[in-house]
Design goal:
With 366 residues, the protein is α/β, with parallel strands linked by helices. The protein has 12 helices and 12 strands. Strand 11 (351-354) and strand 12 (357-360) form a beta hairpin.
Length: 366
């Protein structure tokens, strides 16, 4: 009798999880893009800043793609730590101007590089941060700048498509993992600026906000700092869905988890609520998957209904990836377990490794 009662309670609990995830699936379809009405003639003088350190995959092609933009009113500058940086030969080959980062400034290496450009190159009306591992389509800058024509917008951002360069499982896991960023940015309440492709007007940064950018506990991350600055001024973060920047991937188990744990740790640092929301959501997905297998095998095939949410995730992911590679399906199935591991590890991380340097989390960067 006790066993039957416990089993019934577990079934009721599992059905609540099923309804919860189905509700989130339905409401996610109601999200609307909020940047449809924009001034297409808005073309401020813009500086694209590319912090560089070392040799990224397809670095020369990435830098070269910045020079092929249809946007007519922009300059490009790369920022390196020193004249001996390995990235410099590719920067020179692409014929892009460069400056040396001011190491006396606070923050991470990337924050120092961006702040150096902002201080030294003040004659621009808009600034763009571009990661050196990003390859661009020709309309990227035009579309990224458009939302800034709305004075209620503080930051305009795009999120990348992580493109596998081979059939490594971890390449496809990174691609699937990246689609979570898309989902977050589609939700205006949880939206943040992604520092790999981010634009803002000159007036976002003044003396006080520059100090916050370089010398706060968020200064380990340029995108978290800029998002905090924009929201402190009651400005929106605009999300531009197309044309997506591309990050070419060649991942192993080790490089993927180092990257994923670091990204998650930074998200937890900047947006603590995402930790708790993520744990609830991905724990729900993991439990529903387990319940679906056990109940459909040992109680009734009717419990196969629990896989509707997973099937929807697979269909959406295949559509977004524009690929029918079966590895994607396997990656989608394992993704909730990976996210759960990332969140648990990230919640306990006190330091991160980034571009050969160690940064302390949850304390001021000096």
């Amino acid at each position: 009798m006790i066993f039957e009662v416990i089993l019934l309670l577990i079934i009721i609990f599992s059905f609540i999880i099923f309804l919860f995830l189905m509700f989130l699936d339905i409401t996610s379809r109601l999200r609307k893009n909020d940047i449809n009405k924009l001034n297409k003639k808005y073309k401020p003088k813009t500086l694209v800043m590319i912090p560089c350190k070392g040799n990224d995959l397809t670095l020369y092609e990435n830098i070269s793609s910045v020079k092929k933009q249809t946007y007519s009113n922009y300059d490009v500058v790369a920022i390196v730590d020193s004249e001996s940086d390995e990235a410099l030969k590719y920067i020179k080959k692409a014929q892009v101007k460069y400056i040396i980062s001011d190491k006396t400034l606070g923050g991470s290496g990337k924050v120092k590089a961006i702040a150096t450009a902002l201080i030294k190159l003040k004659s621009y009306d808009a600034y763009v941060i571009l990661d050196s591992d990003v390859y661009l389509q020709n309309e990227w800058l035009t579309e990224l700048i458009k939302p800034l024509s709305d004075k209620k917008v503080g930051i305009s951002t795009m999120y990348p498509f992580f493109k596998p360069t081979n059939n490594s499982f971890w390449n496809y896991m990174k691609m699937v993992w990246g689609f979570v960023g898309d989902s977050l940015l589609e939700n205006e309440k949880r939206r943040f600026g992604w520092g790999g492709s981010l634009a803002f007007r000159k007036d976002l940064i003044n003396k006080d906000s520059l100090e916050f950018f370089t010398n706060s506990k968020y200064s380990v991350s340029d995108d978290i700092s800029l998002t905090k600055i924009a929201k402190s001024k009651n400005l929106k973060v605009a999300y531009v869905k197309e044309p997506k920047p591309i990050v070419n991937c060649n991942e192993t188990f080790g490089t993927f988890f180092e990257w994923a744990n670091r990204q998650t740790a930074l998200t937890v640092l900047g947006y603590r609520k995402n930790l708790y929301q993520g744990l609830v959501y991905y724990t729900s997905e993991v439990l529903l998957f387990i319940f679906g297998i056990l109940f459909s095998l040992f109680i009734s095939p009717l419990f196969l209904i629990y896989f509707i949410h997973l099937l929807k995730s697979i269909i959406v992911t295949l559509k977004r990836s524009k690929s029918k590679n079966p590895i994607i399906i396997i990656a989608v199935i394992f993704a909730p377990f990976v996210y759960e591991i990332n969140l648990i590890i990230a919640s306990k991380m006190k330091h991160i490794q980034w571009r050969g340097k160690t940064y302390k989390l949850e304390s001021d960067i000096k």
